[in-house]
Amino acid sequence: MSISTNKEKNYKGKIKGCENNKKFHWHIVMFDKEIGQMKEGKYTTIKKLNEDLGLNLNGDYVRRIMTRYRADTTMRNKENSFLARWGHIKINKINEPII
Predict the structure, then answer these.
(1) pLDDT tens digits for 40-62?
(2) CA–CA separation, 16 vs 22, rounded Å?
(3) With a threshold of 0.85, does the pTM exceed it?
(4) In sequence order, what DSSP letters do the residues of 57-78 get, joined into one string?
């Protein structure tokens, strides 16, 4: 028996019921510049959040938005600053079951 088949035989995959889509993990409030209104929603993954709101966020951007870490609060870089682009978004980490 080769090593690769032994590894495949022992691999059981994810635990039953540990899917990421059974709970809301992100609550977002943002201002949509195009229509001039606030949007609010709950999402299970960052990928789903990006698809529904037309954003391009990754885990690092979400963390920076939540904590305002390295956010250039003086807006020294004008339209290229972090707050000019993402200052209108508030993201909270939640753990709510989907009803």
Answers:
(1) 999 988 888 888 888 888 888 88
(2) 12
(3) no
(4) --HHHHHHHHH-TT--TT-TTG
